[in-house]
Amino acid sequence: MATFQGSKNPFISELVPMALSNDSILDSLLAYSGIHYADHAGVPADETTWIHYGQAVQAQKFGLTWLAQGNDHVLVPLLVTAMLLCIAETFRENSGRLALYHLRALSALIQKALRLPESQLPKDTRAFLIERYMYTMTLAHITMGSESDEWVLNDGNILYPMLESSPIHALFKLIPRVSVLSRHWAAETQAGSVSDSLFREKEELYTLISSWEPNSREINYTLCGIVYQQALLVYLASIPEGNREALSGYPDTVQELFDTFLPFLMSTPPESPISTMLCWPLAIFGSCAGDGEHRRVIHERLQLLSQIYSAQSVRDTMILLEKMWAENPGPSSPLSFERIMKREGMTHRKSTKGYGTVSVHPIILQTRSDTDELFDTETDKLTWDPMGRYLFKEQLDWSKSRGLQPLKIIADVNELIVHYSSEPTEKSTRKRTTNTPVTLASPEQLP
User: Fold this and answer.
1) Of 164, 183, 199, at which residue does a domain stop?
2) Phi and psi of 364, rounded to 5°?
3) Same domain, yes or no, for 261 and 293?
4) Which of 16, 95, 107, 198 has CA atoms 20 to 30 A from the CA of 127?
5) What is the pLDDT at residue 363?
6) Under a CB-based contact definition with an 8 Å cutoff, are residues 253 and 233 in contact?
7) What is the pLDDT of residues 319-361, one digit of tens each?
């Protein structure tokens, strides 16, 4: 990405022109910038930032409705906006779960976008969006759990070949495979026996990773690849052999990898371009670190990166490593990230806390005369928006005064409520909207 930008930064050359021609992309870009700016300055994001954020989210809602109706022209703005919102969440405290939801949306949207002609999605923009999505998805996979394995591997098999052939892409493609192997190995170890197929997979991955070469004269590119190569080898080494449940001390191979990685880390200035790519390798080495000095060096570098780049993902990594180290005085495993994040509620919320709900405004429960009175006396027709983009703050109080309360429909985690909406037409000025459980929809009604 921007670390290897050459003569241009794709975040500027690709995103800014799109933002200047599309409101939802502009709103999401301004929200992302405002959130990051405030975090870097150590102050709360201002009201303008949250207005842009709200408008971007609202545009996604209407855009998805249009997309479901067959309007492909909204697909690229939906995709770019989801990507920017996903990045924005990485700069917000306790918002990692929201970033993962945007990431799942990106997976669905990018598959549709690949079918667009080049006139709608130019080659350079297509490559940038694929690469950015694959980078985020690949590194986030370690925290998402086994339920994400299938779609992450499938997306990698489809999308990586679409990028220009590159050694770094070949290396990144192996990251989810190592995570899946580690999970399957742990499950089979717990069941009492590890299959021969997993041993063969581990041997194959070790050969592919250890023989990898950057084949580039670009120093940042080469160094980044070497760091990720070392991290992947440590990840593989954290997979227990035989009946050994975890690393007991450092095997020779792990010690050699730490001996290679830590001097490199100490010699790399925190402000260097490659530092923006170091969070994942630091997390992997940190989870396998049992030596107090190794932990101190890794923690100090994460603190420096947090201060320089103000990325909440870096701070979250520090918090997770601190919890991991407090639980286990010896080396642990990268799989511990998923376990701790689920325990701490960092990857999902329970429906009892109100996440995954739909609020139904009481005006839909009123009689026709009540509704007419509301719009006649409590609204200004000159301010009416045909798209219905207003929040009904005063109208809510008006409805409550007549004994009508909003209803909250609570959906459990991973349940889906389909939003149906029809826009005003030349035959009718009314906007009709309803929500229903997905189980009541026929296959033909689902996009």
Assistant:
1) 164
2) -75, -10
3) yes
4) 95
5) 44
6) yes
7) 999 999 999 888 888 999 988 888 877 764 443 333 344 444 5
Question: Is there a contact between 428 and 394 (Cβ–Cβ < 8 Å)?
Answer: no
Kindly state whether residues 224 and 121 are assigned to the same domain: no
Q: Which of 136, 139, 90, 99 is nearest to 310 (CA)?
A: 90
- What stretches of 321-380 adopt beta strand conformation (E)? 357-360
Residues 6+ apart with CB under 8 A from 427: none
Alpha helices in 114-267 (DSSP H): 123-144, 149-159, 167-172, 174-191, 196-210, 219-237, 252-267
pLDDT at 350: 40
Whether residues 272 and 397 share a domain: the answer is no
Interatomic CA distance for residues 76 and 120, integer angstroms: 8
226 and 297 housed in the same domain: yes
Mean pLDDT of 2-16: 68
Q: Could you give the C-alpha distances from 252 to 247, 259, 263, 313, in angstroms and in order?
A: 11, 10, 17, 31
What's the half-sphere exposure (Cβ side, CA atoms, 13 Å) at 219? 3
Average pLDDT over every residue of 381-398: 58
pTM of the model: 0.74
Tell me: the pLDDT tens digits for 69-107?
Answer: 888 899 999 999 999 999 888 888 777 778 888 888 899
Same-domain check for residues 291 and 370: no
Q: Could you tell me if 29 and 156 lie in one domain?
A: yes
Domain that residue 363 falls in: 351-445
Yes or no: say if 269 and 246 are a contact pair by the CB < 8 Å rule. Answer: no
| Residues 263, 233 contacting (CB under 8 angstroms) | no
- Total domains in the chain come to 3
